[in-house]
Every structure is written in structure tokens, then in C-alpha cells.
């Protein structure tokens, strides 16, 4: 029944569909959206894994394109029922210029919205970020907060600033008339730090640990807690929102939802050890040797070196004043808004998420850094 031609009618577009999250969204849609007729995967860099998806019952269309190019976006959006916009430049290390980050994250999102309006696409799901809220530049903790918790959201770094601007544009576009006269329905999902199969920073920490003889050095006190969320659950929440947006437009349109699951609250480093520990790494407590002021000094030195070396080479280490501030500030969410509004429940338990991630790190073991 689910595979009959009559039930397969919907065309979805996933921007950034070859990224860490995007790939999981694409695979989840193929598994969990029986009404799918065509799935368009739009990305600057297409992955070879897309080929294996082309043999199934759903037409998978790979589109190499750039969200900053309005005409490329409009061509990809035309005829789609739903757009899931995950494409973005995730850079908190100073690899890209602030201008490029704005161009991709803000102008790219504007292009997606305008393409929906011009071509008559009614449903837009945007991948925002917890960074839209915080941690703020004052390092205020956000403890077990929800979507309505008051918090002074002030940023200077281009990444959170660009995500905040883009999220605002998406929410303001809710209710705009699209081609054909119907209204656009939009909403934004705010994942906390995502982990799981394909997580580049986890891979980097793993290889760093191997280089250091199986050790990683604790820099952040264990008392600083972060919320983390498994990539499969983030993908599932995107799929569910996309499915429910039409029926529940009045409730969900223009809303934001944190992406959460049952992953435990822990410091960034302790949480990573849930996966890296079983793969043979150890977290060595050097915090007494490396006090916070010294870390801050090193982070500032890194930023200075980055600036000095820029004309010659790209120096972009993990430690800089921004990443240190984020890692060192408690940011935990506790909410059931997604459950109340569209019946979200995590698809993967914490045990499943942990096991899947450990298996992936173990498979990464032999691969080059
Ligand atoms: N990784 C994380 O912990 C979190 C990520 N997010 C958001 O989730 C989304 C996906 O992030 P990740 O999967 O982690 O990053 P990613 O870098 O793995 O994926 C982003 C994808 O967008 C594509 N892309 C970049 N510029 C593009 C352009 N100009 N045109 C077309 N495609 C372009 C990239 O090629 C990549 O495949 C982003 O919007 C990010 O802001 C939100 C919260 C946490
Ligand atoms: C790289 C940081 C950890 C290294 C700190 C050091 C060098 C002292 O050990 C990461 C700590 C927190 C991460 C960010 C957080 O999970 C929230 C994010 C949300 C996003 O939308 C994008 C990614 C990120 C900014 C994430 C990036 C890495 C950290 C700063």
C-alpha cells in the first residue's frame, strides 16, 4: 500500500543534504516518509553515497548547487512541497571570513525563502541552532531552559549572529503569500551540540587522542554541563515537523523548537568520553596544571596567531576565545514543546545513540585523520 504510485506524491528538497546532519535527514526521509515521490538533495559538494539511494522506489535527484546563488536555489525549489533547509557554514574556528559566513547562512536562507514564495512551495523547515540563544558573550549559564526561558541573547561571533539573523528571517516569513495565493508555513529547529555517525569534531578529538598516546587532557571543569543530541533524533525531528506542518500550521507555523533527546547532561569533554572511552582513550585531569586564565591566554594567542598568519596560511585550532567560552558555559535545555506540538519522541534511546556512535568511532579508527 505504502509503495503504490497513488500514495507517493510528495517532493521534498533537502539543502545541505550531504552534510553531517543532512545525510541523516535524507536517509530518515527515505525510511520514514511513505508519501515521498521525489527527494532532491541539494549541496555544494555531493557525496558518492547518494548513488546507492537511486535504486529504491523514491526518485533521488542529486543537485550540485550553491545556496548563495538565487537562481540555482529557485530551480531546485520549483515544484517541491517541502523544503528542509539544513545547508549552512558551521564555522566557529575562523576558517571562513565573516562575510562568507553571512553570505551562506543569511543570504542563502533569504534565497530559500524567496524561492518558496516565487515558486509556490508552502512548507519550510529551517535548521537553526541553540547558538541563536547562547551561550552569550557574558558567559551566563542557561540551565535546563526551554523555548520561553528569558535569556540575554547577545553575540559577537559571526556564526551565532548569522544563525540568529537567518532564524528571524524564516520566522518572519511565516504567513507570507506564496505563488498561487496560499500561505507559507515555516518553523525553526534549534539543535544543541549534535553528535553521532559522521561528527567531524568527534573524529578530530579521537585522532588527537591517538596522537597523544591514548590520552586527552581535561580543560573544562566537569561541573559545566552541555545538552547534546543524537543526529538520528535531530533528523527524526526534522522529518516529523515536515510531516505535521500542514495539519498543524496554526500551532506550529512561526515557532521554534529546541532539538532534544535522552542524552545525559555532561561537560563537552566528559560527554565525548562516553564514546572515546570505549574506543581506548583516557581523559587526564590537568586542570590544576592548566588553570582557566592560562587557557584563556592560549586561546587569545591562537587568535592572534591566526590573524598574523592569515596572509600565509590558515591556522584554525579548536581552541580560541569563542570555543573556550562556549565549552566553559553551562547550556542545557529541558523542554517538551516538540512533544506537545507535534508528538515528538526520540526515535533512538540514549543506549542506541551511544552504541551507534561508538561503533562509528571504532570504524573510523583505521582511517586517516
Ligand atoms: N553540528 C552541530 O552541532 C550543529 C549544527 N547546526 C546546524 O545544522 C546544519 C547542518 O550542520 P552540520 O551538518 O553540522 O554541518 P555540515 O558542514 O556537515 O553540513 C552543512 C552542509 O551544507 C553544505 N553547504 C555549505 N555551504 C553551502 C552552499 N553555499 N550551498 C549549498 N550547500 C552548502 C555543505 O557542503 C555541507 O554538506 C547547519 O545549518 C548548522 O548551523 C545546529 C546546531 C548544532
Ligand atoms: C570545539 C569546542 C570544544 C573544544 C574546547 C577545548 C579546546 C577547550 O577543549 C566545542 C565546545 C562546544 C562546541 C559547540 C557547541 O556544541 C554548540 C554548537 C552549535 C552549533 O550550531 C555549531 C557547532 C557548535 C558551535 C559547537 C562547536 C564546537 C564547540 C565550540
TrEMBL record:
Compartment(s) where it occurs, according to its Swiss-Prot or TrEMBL record: Endoplasmic reticulum membrane
One of the Pfam families matching this protein, by short name: 3Beta_HSD
Any one of the GO CC terms: endoplasmic reticulum membrane
Pathway: Steroid biosynthesis; Lipid metabolism; steroid biosynthesis
Membrane found in the keyword field: yes
Residue ranges constituting the 3-beta hydroxysteroid dehydrogenase/isomerase domain according to the UniProt record: 13-285
Documented EC number(s): 1.1.1.181
Catalytic activity: 7alpha,25-dihydroxycholesterol + NAD(+) = 7alpha,25-dihydroxy-4-cholesten-3-one + NADH + H(+); (25R)-cholest-5-en-3beta,7alpha,26-triol + NAD(+) = (25R)-7alpha,26-dihydroxycholest-4-en-3-one + NADH + H(+); (24S)-7alpha-dihydroxycholesterol + NAD(+) = (24S)-7alpha,24-dihydroxycholest-4-en-3-one + NADH + H(+); 7alpha-hydroxycholesterol + NAD(+) = 7alpha-hydroxycholest-4-en-3-one + NADH + H(+)
GO molecular function, one term: cholest-5-ene-3-beta,7-alpha-diol 3-beta-dehydrogenase activity
Topology of the protein relative to the lipid bilayer: Multi-pass membrane protein
Family, similarity comment: Belongs to the 3-beta-HSD family.
Name by which UniProt lists this protein: 3 beta-hydroxysteroid dehydrogenase type 7
Amino acid at each position: 500500500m505504502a509503495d503504490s504510485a497513488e500514495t507517493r506524491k510528495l517532493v521534498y528538497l533537502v539543502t545541505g543534504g550531504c552534510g553531517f546532519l543532512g545525510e541523516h535527514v535524507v536517509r530518515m526521509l527515505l525510511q520514514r516518509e511513505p508519501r515521498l515521490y521525489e527527494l532532491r538533495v541539494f549541496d555544494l559538494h555531493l557525496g558518492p553515497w547518494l548513488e546507492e539511494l537511486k535504486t529504491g522506489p523514491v526518485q533521488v535527484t542529486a543537485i550540485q548547487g550553491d545556496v548563495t546563488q538565487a537562481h540555482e536555489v529557485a530551480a531546485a525549489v520549483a515544484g517541491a512541497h517541502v523544503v528542509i533547509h539544513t545547508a549552512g557554514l558551521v564555522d566557529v574556528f575562523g576558517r571562513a571570513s565573516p562575510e562568507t559566513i553571512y553570505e551562506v547562512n543569511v543570504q542563502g536562507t533569504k534565497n530559500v525563502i524567496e524561492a518558496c514564495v516565487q515558486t509556490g512551495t508552502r512548507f519550510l523547515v529551517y535548521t537553526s541552532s541553540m547558538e541563536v540563544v547562547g551561550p552569550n558573550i557574558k558567559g551566563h549559564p542557561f540551565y535546563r531552559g526551554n523555548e520561553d526561558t528569558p535569556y540575554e541573547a547577545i553575540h559577537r561571533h559571526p556564526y551565532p549572529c548569522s544563525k540568529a539573523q537567518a532564524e528571524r528571517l524564516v520566522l518572519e516569513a511565516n504567513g507570507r503569500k506564496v505563488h498561487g495565493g496560499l500561505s507559507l508555513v515555516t518553523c525553526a529547529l534549534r539543535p544543541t551540540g549534535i553528535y553521532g555517525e559522521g561528527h567531524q569534531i568527534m573524529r578530530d578529538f579521537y585522532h588527537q587522542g591517538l596522537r597523544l598516546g591514548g590520552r586527552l587532557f581535561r580543560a573544562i571543569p566537569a561541573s559545566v554541563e552541555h545538552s547534546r543530541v543524537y543526529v538520528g533524533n535531530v533528523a527524526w525531528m526534522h522529518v516529523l515537523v515536515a510531516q505535521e506542518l500542514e495539519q498543524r500550521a496554526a500551532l506550529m507555523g512561526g515557532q521554534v523548537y529546541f532539538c532534544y533527546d535522552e542524552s545525559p547532561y555532561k561537560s563537552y569533554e566528559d560527554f565525548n568520553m562516553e564514546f572515546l572511552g570505549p574506543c581506548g582513550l583516557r581523559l587526564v585531569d590537568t586542570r590544576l596544571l592548566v588553570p582557566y586564565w592560562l587557557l584563556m591566554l592560549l586561546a587569545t594567542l591562537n587568535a592572534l596567531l591566526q590573524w598574523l598568519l592569515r596572509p600565509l596560511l590558515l591556522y584554525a585550532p579548536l581552541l580560541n576565545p569563542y570555543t573556550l567560552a562556549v565549552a566553559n558555559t553551562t547550556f542545557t535545555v529541558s523542554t517538551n514543546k516538540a512533544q506537545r506540538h507535534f508528538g515528538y519522541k526520540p526515535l533512538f534511546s540514549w543506549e542506541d545513540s551511544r552504541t551507534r556512535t561508538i561503533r562509528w568511532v571504532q570504524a573510523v579508527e583505521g582511517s586517516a585523520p
